[in-house]
Design a protein that fits this description.
This is N-terminal kinase-like protein. One of its GO terms (molecular function) is ATP binding. This protein is of the alpha+beta class. It folds into three domains: about 90 residues, Phosphorylase Kinase, domain 1 (2-Layer Sandwich), CATH 3.30.200; about 160 residues, Transferase(Phosphotransferase), domain 1 (Orthogonal Bundle), CATH 1.10.510; about 80 residues. The protein contains twelve helices and ten strands.
């Protein structure tokens, strides 16, 4: 009987927690671990908070992150799977991801493919912040490289939800309990005269500026470095300077950034972003639009990251082939990604062409 009550509840957690993934260390109350779902072996990630060795304040913000992630569902926000709390540990399971910083170090340092990919990633986080600020009336309050993760399809996912608060909950900014995060605080946090100019999105737009700086230049050493654009492309420099402007009320709304940068010549207007957004909306496209799209995509695939092609684009192509009205025109890009002529022959036999 007593053995029942003394059982470790973490044994009932439906995931086997494996080795830690480096990258968060002093930047988060969590440690990130590889994990597998019991039974199926599906790869997931588990964020682990050590209750016994953590402070009460740290536990509170970790719990707050779990609560928020449970309720926030968006394609560019980290996907919540499950959680468990015991006297020893707090677990939060999500889709399989790695820290953005880790992911970017594995990419080639330069080239057209990296440029396209960074635009797609920054677009995704801008879209997530628009959802939070405009649709949810929430502030993230912790936007930086360490709050962004990348899944197997190369999609950037916003996490780090420990400090999310309602936009109507005053203009004061939360105190970060980890000193290393203070360099990302907007300047008005220490200047009461500017706090009356704070908007629902000004804090997160400052954070987006920090994230953009880090995406092109690496981890931010200190806030003063934001004045040096470094490797930020000219195409993005105007928006970036607005984001890190000293006046909170002058920072743009994320929805406006998307509108401006998606126009011809804008930073978010490129083949990769166009392709992935078309695939997200493919169900509402007519047959003519689909045929033109599939005919044009094949030569572009060489410029797209391999993991994006294999885990993001390919499943959409297969779905369009199996369930849509695209017909044989989808075969060429589909097998360009798969990379084998044999599969093309099999598909032709299947279609009797």
């Amino acid at each position: 009987m007593w053995s029942f009550f003394s059982r470790d509840p973490s044994k009932d957690f439906p995931f086997d927690v494996g080795e830690p993934i480096p990258g968060l260390e002093d930047k988060s109350v969590w440690s990130l671990h590889k994990a597998k779902k019991k039974g199926s072996g599906e790869e997931v990630s588990v964020f682990v908070f050590d209750v016994k060795n953590g402070s009460e304040t740290q536990l509170d913000v970790a719990k707050a992150a779990v609560k928020r992630l449970k309720t926030l569902r968006h394609p560019s926000i980290l996907t919540y799977l499950d959680s468990l709390e015991s006297e020893k540990v707090l677990y939060m399971a999500t889709e399989y991801v790695e820290p953005l910083e880790t992911h970017l170090t594995q990419l080639s340092k330069e080239g057209h493919q990296r440029e396209l990919y960074l635009a797609w990633g920054i677009f995704q986080i801008t879209r997530a912040l628009s959802f939070l600020n405009n649709d949810g009336n929430l502030r993230h309050n912790n936007v930086c490289m360490s709050s962004v993760f990348v899944n197997s399809a190369g999609e950037w996912k916003l996490g780090g939800l420990e400090y999310v608060a309602g936009a109507s909950e005053g203009t004061g900014l939360p105190i970060k309990i980890l000193p290393v995060l203070e360099k990302y605080d907007a300047p008005e946090k220490c200047d009461s005269s500017k706090q009356r100019f704070v908007t629902k999105c000004s804090t997160d737009m400052w954070g987006l500026g920090c994230l953009i700086w880090e995406a092109f230049n690496g981890p931010l050493p200190q806030q003063a470095q934001l004045k040096d654009l470094g490797n930020i492309p000219k195409q993005l420099s105007t928006v970036y300077c607005e984001l890190v402007g000293a006046n909170p009320s002058s920072r743009p709304n994320p929805a406006d950034i998307i509108t401006r940068c998606r126009k011809l010549g804008g930073y978010f207007k490129n083949d990769l972003v166009d392709t992935l957004l078309f695939l997200e909306e493919i169900q509402i496209k007519d047959k003519g639009e689909k045929n033109r799209f599939f005919s044009a995509i094949t030569p572009q695939l060489d410029n797209f990251p391999e993991n994006v092609c294999r885990h993001k684009i390919l499943p959409q192509l297969i779905t369009a082939f199996e369930y849509g009205d695209a017909g044989s025109v989808v075969l060429m890009p589909m097998f360009k990604v798969r990379g084998t002529a044999l599969q093309l022959v099999k598909a032709q036999q299947y279609m009797h062409i």
